[in-house]
Amino acid sequence: MIQSKPVLLAALINLIAIAFIPRIFTNPTNIKIVDDLVSFLRQQRVNLLTSTVYACLLIIGVEYAMEYTEGVQSPLSGPLSALTGGPGSAA
Questions:
Q1: pLDDT for 27-44, tens place per residue?
Q2: Would you list the DSSP string of the chain?
Q3: Which run of H or of E encompasses 80?
Q4: How far apart are CA 70 and CA 23, in angstroms?
Q5: What is the extent of the structural domain holding 34?
Q6: Is the residue at 59 inside a domain?
Q7: CA distances, 24 to each of 32, 39, 41, 66 (Å)
Q8: Separation CA 82–CA 66 (nearest Å)
Q9: Is residue 52 part of a domain?
Q10: Is the pTM higher than 0.70?
């Protein structure tokens, strides 16, 4: 069963990030990744509903995939597990 708490939390974090981060960083920081993130969030204000729905659908999809694959043996538990540190490794 997919829980709604993580989905609502992701939607709330998305809304807060889009609403407040561009207000905090009004001047360029000269740190490319921060300036790019702020610019991206400013552009997302136009698509607030769309980005929130997308974030929720992404979380629901990940939870569904995790629930669906529960109990399925990982491909890393085979012969390569000694190299990757997987469940079957002797280390």
A1: 989 999 999 999 988 888
A2: ---SHHHHHHHHHHHHHHHHHHHH--S--S-HHHHHHHHHHHHHTTTHHHHHHHHHHHHHHHHHHHHHTTTPPPGGGSTTHHHHT-TT---
A3: none
A4: 42
A5: 5-72
A6: yes
A7: 16, 12, 12, 36
A8: 24
A9: yes
A10: no
